[in-house]
Write a structure and sequence with these properties.
The complex is a heterodimer of chains A (112) and B (110). Chain A has strands at 5-7, 10-13, 19-24, 31-37, 44-50, 53-56, 65-68, 75-79, 88-95, 102-103, 107-111. With 112 residues, chain A is mainly beta. In chain A, strand 5 and strand 6 form a beta hairpin. In chain A, the strands form two sheets. In chain A, strands 2, 4, 5, 6, 9, 10 and 11 form a seven-stranded mixed sheet that branches. A four-stranded antiparallel sheet of chain A has the order 1-3-8-7, with no helix packed on it. Chain A is globular. Chain B is an all-beta fold. In chain B, 0% of the residues lie in helices and 55% in strands. In chain B, the strands form two sheets. In chain B, strands 2, 4, 5, 9, 10 and 11 form a six-stranded mixed sheet that branches. The mean pLDDT of chain B is 90. Classes of the chains: A mainly beta (112), B mainly beta (110). Chain A binds chain B through residues 31, 35, 40-45, 48, 50, 55-56, 91, 95, 97-106, and chain B through 2, 30, 32, 40-44, 47, 87, 95-103.
Chain lengths: 112, 110
């Protein structure tokens, strides 16, 4: 079974630039999560989708972050414009809607 | 509210045991445990549902005390491969929203 795919794996941008991350969950998984993990900290949930609907986006900085999951499959997370404090690993995870979350390899973002 | 883990870090020799604790200020529906190795994504270990159950596989087990809003992860006869950062994730409501803890860095040395 293929795992959660993410791209790119690494991205370096300057502050005020825009960036987008892509995630393809495990086939059949209805729930998709985007997390931000700052170095030395636990993953912080940014947004959770159930199929193509948003379940929770309470911690998403909506003035600069946006996410969509068209057709209920893959998803994109965008930051526009980026700030220095956005430097982190962005993790995508998916689940069948019950328990286990399967994480992708993550995208390491560096904002200069 | 982010769950609090203790200890923050621990160093073990191979074969020693360790306990990692996770405490929440809110009533818990479930507790998830993950291990993350440096530069890698978190990997699921186990989930415990409310009801005070205990789970385990191989030499890693966990307990969940619903009344105390706590969970503990037990690693026995530790191996080098156990090294990594352990996160608990707590679910306080529905929709499988998990809030991850502060993390416990575990290093097993020969």
């Amino acid at each position: 079974e293929a795992g959660v795919a993410q791209s790119p794996r690494y991205k370096i941008i300057e502050k005020r630039q825009s960036v987008a991350f892509w995630c393809n969950p495990i086939s059949g998984h209805a729930t998709l999560y985007w997390y931000q993990q700052i170095l030395g900290q636990g993953p912080k949930l940014l947004i959770q989708f159930q199929n193509n609907g948003v379940v929770d986006d309470s911690q998403l900085p909506k003035d600069r972050f946006s996410a969509e999951r068209l057709k209920g499959v893959d998803s994109t997370l965008k930051i526009q414009p980026a700030k220095l404090e956005d430097s982190a690993v962005y993790l995508c995870a998916s689940s069948l809607g019950t328990d286990t979350q399967y994480f992708g390899p993550g995208t390491r973002l560096t904002v200069l | 509210q982010q769950p609090v883990q203790s200890p923050q870090a621990v160093i073990l020799r191979e074969g020693e045991d360790a306990v990692i604790n996770c405490s929440s200020s809110k009533a818990l529906y479930s507790v998830h445990w993950y291990r993350q190795k440096h530069g890698e994504a978190p990997v699921f270990l186990m989930i415990l549902l409310k009801g005070g159950e205990q789970k385990g596989h191989d030499k890693i087990s966990a307990s969940f005390n619903e009344k105390k809003q706590q969970s503990s992860l037990y690693l026995t006869a530790s191996q080098l491969s156990y090294s990594g950062t352990y996160f608990c994730g707590t679910e306080t409501g529905g929709y499988q929203k998990v809030t991850f803890g502060t993390g416990t860095k575990l290093q097993v040395i020969p």
